[in-house]
Amino acid sequence: MSTKHDQRLSPPGAAPQASSLGGRGQEASPISEPVIELEGVSVCLGGRTILQEVTFTINPGEFIAVLGPNGAGKSTLLKVLLGLIRPSAGTVRLFGQAPRRGNRLIGYAPQHRTLEGALSLRARDLVGFGLDGHRWGPGWFPAGGRRRQAIIEAALAEVDALALADMPVAHLSGGEQQRLLIAQALLSQPRLLLLDEPLSNLDLSHEQEIIALIARLCRTHGMTVLLVSHDVNPLLPVIDRVLYLARGHAAIGKPEQVITSATLSALYGAPVEVVEALGRLFVVGVDI
Amino acid sequence: MISLLSYPFIQNAFLAGTCIAIVAAVTGYFLLLRGLTFAGHALPNIGFAGAAGAVLLGLDPLFGLLAFTIGAAIGIGLLGRNLRERDLAIGILMTFALALGLLFLSLYSGYAERVYSILFGTILGISRLDVLLSFGVSLLILVSILLLFRPLLFSSYDPEVAEARGVPVRLLAVAFLVLVALTIAIAVQIVGALLVFTLLVGPAATAGRLALRPGAVILLAIALGLLYTWLGILLAVLSGTIPVSFFIAFLSFIVYLPVRLIAPRWQRRPQQPGLLPAAGAGLSQQASAR
């Protein structure tokens, strides 16, 4: 599809490390039940095979970067987990159960685009959708109106955005809106956070802030995180494993195991070189 | 003025106009939010074809209006979210309906007054029965919107997350457009098919630029809708010959214009010192990270 796949990767520690992070988290306990189990999962959409016999397991508290070229099925995978897309083959288990819509154990922030008509929506309104936006009725006379606001403000504080509470969403920058979407996703007190490209359209310092924030949620709340990204560089200091998708296939493991010429060549089905240059790793040589 | 209000037909106009102004403002708010203003323009025109067809068959135009607007609303609701494709499909549907309306008109040899009133409204010829009908349908629409309020708002702003949270997004889209179709069916009798759009979009568009939260926008839109309708009826009665729809559209325009011109004041971001400072360094790094 694209001409050259030039995903840049750097070895752990090469990217500037956010100060608030304590490096890699501890390994998830092997006894506890996996959060996500995929076995032989295939997804066909419109006659095209997006995922083909994908199998992997993700344990509680893991921070996973989901990588791969455009169209590799990263967003599709998240939608399978959310119960929005049914796989054509294989089994998916989340917390031991089949995926279903409206699962409160999952917090989800989709790929961000400007919210339409967001001028007349305040940050706290947007975040509040995560609490009761799915409930019927107007919700104008809740017994705990103050309690509702307290919960929303706690979520805003969690993402360091309490000062933005009464700002119109349209006035906020990409990084600030991303915080709000994460706060919204946190409101159902999820145990699994699915974030689709939360780092796109962010400048470097905001990127670091968002990564630090997500890593903190993962470590202090024991939340499992799947973060879709184009660039693994800034994530290397904080992630446990990477899930690399290409041509419908998946490879999962520690970054240093997956992001190698051998593994990626097998995944792409074409010769791929992982080259280290300028203190970063580059994936080069694929014409897809 | 007080004596004017004692005329039953003027009372009827005010009562029906009040119901319609309220529901049009509320559904109009969601139309704007969902990027469906073009559908709001197309539905009355499609309804006109239905009304013309009903007149041709010797039926009450309201039945034709309802059949066509609800049918089209369900179709548009099922079209999905791709804005460009959806608006193209709506445009083609609308021109087809207009062509049908033209055909029905040319086949109809009777008195054109009834068709004219569908196009431009007949607020001063409204019966008590029409008022009761408007009231009943308005109540139905408002109660429905209240029941759907939170998921409708959520899915208007962020359909993807709403869907993931278990909101039946597509069903809501269809249900909402059916409510719009009902609004249009009762509003057509007052402002006419050509100017329903004014009552649907005018108040909400102005309110959206003034108020900062959804509830406030809706209340302000209702207030503006009532203002336009009441003043419009009053001016039409005083003028004697100029139709109500002209005044409503005129008022809507002259209020929107200054608001639109002043609105940049609201759209600019207030200064927030010390909050999430932007990156000073790292321009070159950012360039390499992409």
Secondary-structure content class of chain B: mainly alpha
Whole-number average pLDDT of chain A?
Answer: 83
Reading side by side through the largest sheet of chain A, how are the strands ordered? 6-7-8-4-9-10
How many H/I helices of chain B?
Answer: 14
Query: Mean pLDDT of chain B, as a whole number?
Result: 85
The greatest interface between two protein chains, and residues involved on each side, is:
A-B, 57 and 50 residues
Number of strands of chain A: 12
Order of helices and strands of chain A: EEEEHEEHHHEHEEEHHEE
CATH domain class of the domain at 1-190 in chain B:
Mainly Alpha
| CATH level-4 homologous superfamily of the domain at 1-190 in chain B | ABC transporter involved in vitamin B12 uptake, BtuC
GO biological process, one term (chain B): transmembrane transport
Family (chain B): Belongs to the ABC-3 integral membrane protein family.
Subcellular location (chain B): Cell membrane; Membrane
Transmembrane segments (chain B): 12-32, 62-82, 88-108, 129-149, 169-202, 214-238, 244-263
Strand-helix topology:
The complex is a heterodimer of chains A (288) and B (290).
Chain A: E1 8-9, E2 36-45, E3 48-58, E4 63-67, H1 74-81, E5 89-94, E6 106-109, H2 123-132, H3 145-158, H4 174-186, E7 192-196, H5 204-221, E8 224-228, E9 241-246, E10 249-253, H6 255-258, H7 261-268, E11 273-277, E12 280-284
Parallel strand pairs in A: 4-8, 4-9, 6-7, 7-8
Antiparallel strand pairs in A: 1-12, 2-3, 2-5, 9-10, 11-12
Chain B: H1 2-5, H2 8-33, H3 37-56, H4 61-78, H5 83-107, H6 113-120, H7 128-157, H8 159-164, H9 169-191, H10 196-210, H11 214-239, H12 244-262, H13 264-267, H14 283-289
